[in-house]
From TrEMBL:
InterPro entries: IolE/XylAMocC-like, UCP036778_sugar_epimerase, Xyl_isomerase-like_sf, Xyl_isomerase-like_TIM-brl. Residues 20-259 form the Xylose isomerase-like TIM barrel domain. Signal peptide: none annotated. This is TIM barrel protein.
Length: 261
């Protein structure tokens, strides 16, 4: 299997050091972010591209356009700016996340947003990675909803799914769509006290033997079904971000996953 690393795995590392760490881990694919750390807001795209080339890594995506399914206000301008940045830095895709504040978004609005985003992506040769969020307050929880909306928007070939093991588990999903999946995010929850309905990004750590999200079975199912893309670490927990040696921790998680497979 192919491992990739999202910058959120080691957000305190400068981008060049993060790229170097990824290569040292034996991986060659990375994801950069526009939230924490905000690479888009702090570095010229040309510098990002140069750093990636120097380290020998490929930028899979910029994470993330939010809330992509509410196509109003400044969203279109932000989408164009992110897409332009992606092209200039050498990224291949944009991660697209739905509104996640308890507000219901009509299905027709989801389809309309995908239609509006389609030319922005196609004109730049980018893929849109549509990521259902499994939280109860999410406006798009299920992958089947995303797939149907992509079809209704005529977005086949432009959009792929982001399969996130955390959100797959939270949404209670059982179906896998390897032919639709462009990237997989992996993270674990090990806190035995938190109820599934109360799991948040802050609970997401690296995958180890205490994982409650069935990462190993999800990974096995995806591989068995034919998915051959990267699996990208995306832990949000402060205890991961504060690690003195994130490379060692990631190496340990990689070894655990490989041993389980």
């Amino acid at each position: 299997m192919r491992f990739a690393i999202n910058h959120i795995s080691a957000p305190k590392l400068a981008l060049s050091k993060f790229f170097e760490m990824t290569k040292a881990l034996g991986a060659t694919e990375v994801e950069i972010r526009n939230d924490l750390p905000d690479v888009m807001g702090t570095m010229p795209a040309s510098d990002v591209k140069a750093a990636a080339e120097a380290a020998g890594v490929t930028i899979l995506s910029i994470n993330a356009l939010y809330p992509f399914n509410v196509w109003s206000g400044e969203l279109a301008a932000r989408a164009v700016a992110m897409a332009d940045y992606a092209v200039a830095c050498g990224a291949k895709a944009l991660v697209m996340c739905p509104l996640n504040d308890g507000t219901e978004v009509p299905y027709d609005d989801l389809v309309a947003a995908l239609k509006a985003m389609k030319p922005i992506l196609t004109e730049r040769g980018l893929t849109g990675l549509v990521e259902p969020l499994g939280f109860l307050i999410s406006s798009m929880r299920k992958k089947e909803t995303a797939i149907q909306a992509i079809k209704d928007a005529g977005g086949e070939g432009v959009y792929k799914l982001m399969h996130d093991t955390f959100h797959h588990y939270l949404a209670g999903e059982t179906a896998f769509y390897p032919e639709w999946t462009g990237l997989v995010h992996i993270s674990g929850v090990v806190d035995p006290a938190v109820d599934v309905a109360d799991m948040l990004d802050a609970h997401r750590v690296l995958v180890d033997t205490g994982d409650r999200l069935e990462n190993i079975s999800q990974i096995k199912a995806l591989l068995a079904a034919g998915y051959d893309g990267p699996f990208s670490f995306e832990p949000f927990a402060a205890e991961v971000h504060d690690l003195a040696d994130p490379q060692a921790a990631l190496a340990e998680s990689i070894a655990y996953i490989e041993n389980q497979l």
